[in-house]
Specification:
4-stranded antiparallel sheet, Peptide Deformylase, about 220 residues, about 15% helix, globular, 5-stranded antiparallel sheet, alpha+beta
Length: about 220
């Protein structure tokens, strides 16, 4: 899940805001979900795996039937969990499900113009990503699987993506800017890669408070 300085909460009055609802502890009813789940009315918040859990280092398996009820429930619960955590992306391995899918969105505040427009929340199932050219950009990333830290990560400036959306329909396109960053970060989770593993200078990894106060080393 892309977090840290990229955390962006959905609007408080949206359907994803559940601050006044009662939380009830319960366990997963979805096959393959081993983390504890917290049900909020008819929605479910999923427990996020943290660095050190082996599920985050595994190569995830393809989704066989995107429209299967358990996959559709999983996607809805992942969207709720992402919104509750204030993230802009969440991959299935981060909630203890080793499947090749993630949810994401691009808020207006992160749009970089016509080539990187805001995007509504959606899922990308069985995605394929490939870089376009060699140009790279530096991204300051955080992750809720690695709470409290952020680091400078080199990413491709432009990528081509393809897969299925949450309705099982084929999608493809070219991403740049913030969307390219989100897609690459979440796609890495499906291959068992965490963002520190992409860093080339670990002096530029720090706790959020210190990074804000002192800045990351150049």
């Amino acid at each position: 899940m892309l977090g840290g300085p990229y955390n962006t909460r959905l609007k408080p009055n949206s359907i994803h805001s559940r601050r006044s609802r009662r939380l009830i502890d319960c366990f997963s009813a979805v096959p393959g979900v081993h983390g504890r789940r917290i049900r909020v009315d008819m929605m479910t918040l999923l427990k996020i795996a943290r660095m050190g859990h082996p599920v985050l280092l595994q190569e995830a398996q393809p989704v066989e039937d995107p429209l299967a009820p358990e996959i559709q429930t999983l996607i809805a619960d992942m969207i709720e969990t992402m919104a509750d955590a204030g993230g802009v992306g969440l991959a299935a391995p981060q909630i203890h499900v080793s499947k090749r899918l993630f949810v994401y969105f691009v808020p207006e505040s992160r749009s970089a113009g016509p080539d990187d427009p805001a995007r509504e929340v959606d899922a990308l199932i069985n995605p394929v990503l490939s870089p376009i050219g060699d140009a790279q950009m530096e991204c300051i990333e955080g992750c809720l699987s690695i709470p409290g830290l952020r680091g400078a990560v080199p990413r491709f400036a432009q990528v081509r993506y393809a897969g299925l959306d949450r309705r099982g329909q084929p999608v493809e396109g070219i991403a740049s800017g913030f969307l390219a960053n989100v897609l690459q970060h979440e796609y890495d989770h499906l291959d068992g890669i965490l963002y520190p593993m992409r860093m080339t200078d670990h002096r530029r990894l720090g706790f959020n408070e210190e990074a804000t106060r002192f800045g990351l080393p150049a």
